[in-house]
Amino acid sequence: MRLGVTNQKGGAGKTTTTLNVAGALNQRGHDVLVIDLDPQGHATEGLGFEDLYDDPDRDSLFDVLPDLDRMGDLEQLAVEHQEVDVVPSHERMINAEDELANVMKREERLDMLFNESDADQRWDYILVDCPPNLGVLTDNAIVATGNVLIPAQAKSTSIRAIELLFKQLRSIESAFGDVDEVGLVANEVGVDGEAEEMMEWFKDIFEDRENCEVFEIRKRVALQRAWNAGVSIFEHEEDCDMEEVYLDVAEHLEDYADD
């Protein structure tokens, strides 16, 4: 299964969601690839590969996506982490959207890379951590995966961002085929009235959609400490009750993939 983790609103918890869902899938015995498509490289940092982000001698998606002759080079970009395989971001990715602006099939390059590299045979799950915008890179992730998991804060400011994301998804569907929202992960959910109202709104919007569920992640210091250690919460030394929620997300993805 391929999955884009996307929300153009900053601070929604995209990377925390990506890394911990990937860790949960690994715990359940799956081979997982994490693609850091964000030019800021948060997933690259969160998995402990900061040194690769600014390595001038390392090829990245910046070098491969615009080049049709390199559509089979996905495995050459991947590095091993103790839990998952990773395609790190790179500081040159800041210019990736400009590089893709005038190429043929610019929104389909990541899909072509997956297909020509036989990625679906190498990994059980591919998770793409998207940039915090609705540009060409995010379009590539959505087209390539056809499935999106949406992280969001349980705050009213999330409503407009999700409405805009839905418009973008429907636009992509009209040009490239179906896109399924497989779930929403509400991050750092507090105990205030606004959070309660937003959780109700999330459930009203998402749980009527076929095979779509809403998951609630409470704020836990252990999640940040796991990030600082370069691992998911499952490989971190502290126990955390949110592990069960991420395992629930992984099980939901397994059920969705089986359908």
Features:
8 strands; Rossmann fold; alpha/beta; eight-stranded mixed β-sheet; 259 residues
Number of domains: 1
| Main sheet specs | 8 strands, mixed
pLDDT < 50 runs, ≥5 residues: none
User: So, the CATH homologous superfamily?
Assistant: P-loop containing nucleotide triphosphate hydrolases
Assign an overall shape: globular
Please give the count of helices: 13
**What amount of the residues lies in strands?**
15-25%
Overall pLDDT score: 95
Question: Portion of residues in helices?
Answer: 40-55%
Distance between the termini: 11 Å
Topology:
Blueprint: E1 2-5, H1 14-27, E2 32-36, H2 42-46, H3 50-53, H4 61-64, H5 74-77, E3 79-80, E4 85-87, H6 96-100, H7 109-116, H8 119-122, E5 125-129, H9 136-145, E6 147-153, H10 157-176, E7 180-189, H11 193-206, E8 213-218, H12 221-229, H13 243-258
Parallel strand pairs: 1-5, 1-6, 2-4, 2-5, 6-7, 7-8
Antiparallel strand pairs: 3-4
Helix pairs in contact: 1-13, 7-9
Structure description:
With 259 residues, this protein is α/β, with parallel strands linked by helices. The protein has 13 helices and eight strands. The protein has helices at residues 14-27, 42-46, 50-53, 61-64, 74-77, 96-100, 109-116, 119-122, 136-145, 157-176, 193-206, 221-229, 243-258, and strands spanning 2-5, 32-36, 79-80, 85-87, 125-129, 147-153, 180-189, 213-218. Strands 3-4-2-5-1-6-7-8 form an eight-stranded mixed beta sheet, with helices on both faces. α7 (109-116) crosses α9. The longest helix has 20 residues, at 157-176.
